[in-house]
Write a structure and sequence with these properties.
With 124 residues, the protein is of the alpha+beta class. The chain contains 3 helices and 5 strands, in the order αββααβββ. 27% of the residues are buried.
C-alpha cells in the first residue's frame, strides 16, 4: 500500500466518523463522496449518484428569507469560482427521501490539484 492510498483511506475513515455532514464534489459540482451524517441530513443514498449536484432542482434551495437560492451563489459553486473558502452560509434544502425542509449552515472549501481540477468539501 502506498502512502497516498494510506492517506486516502484515513481521510475516508475520518469523514465517515464525523457527526457533521460532509460532501465532496468535483469541479462540475457532482457529488463524489458523502458521509453517513450528510446522507441522513440530505436524504442521499450511500452510493453517490453520478448525476446529482447541489444545483439539482429537487433540493429546492432557499435562502434565510425563503427566496430561491441563486445557483451561482451555492457555497460549493462560489468556492470553486472564487478559489476561496465560503463560510457559514445559511441555506434551506429538502431531504430527498423524506421531503422535509432542512436548514443548514454550510462551509465550502476548494481543494485544487496540480492540474487545476479539484474537489471541495461541504460541512453542514
Amino acid at each position: 500500500m502506498t502512502a497516498d492510498q494510506t492517506s486516502n483511506g484515513r481521510f475516508r475513515e475520518l469523514i465517515e466518523r464525523l457527526d457533521v455532514g460532509v460532501v465532496v464534489q468535483d469541479a462540475q459540482d457532482t457529488i463524489l463522496i458523502s458521509n453517513p451524517a450528510a446522507q441522513r441530513i440530505l436524504g442521499l443514498d450511500q452510493e453517490p449518484n453520478s448525476q446529482l449536484s447541489s444545483r439539482d432542482p429537487r433540493w429546492k434551495l432557499v435562502d434565510a428569507d425563503g427566496h430561491d437560492f441563486p445557483n451561482d451563489q451555492i457555497p460549493s459553486v462560489l468556492a470553486f469560482r472564487t478559489r476561496k473558502p465560503v463560510q457559514n452560509v445559511i441555506m434551506g434544502t429538502t431531504n430527498l427521501k423524506t421531503g422535509e425542509r432542512r436548514w443548514l449552515s454550510i462551509t465550502a472549501a476548494p481543494i485544487f490539484e496540480s492540474d487545476c481540477q479539484g474537489s471541495h468539501s461541504i460541512a453542514s
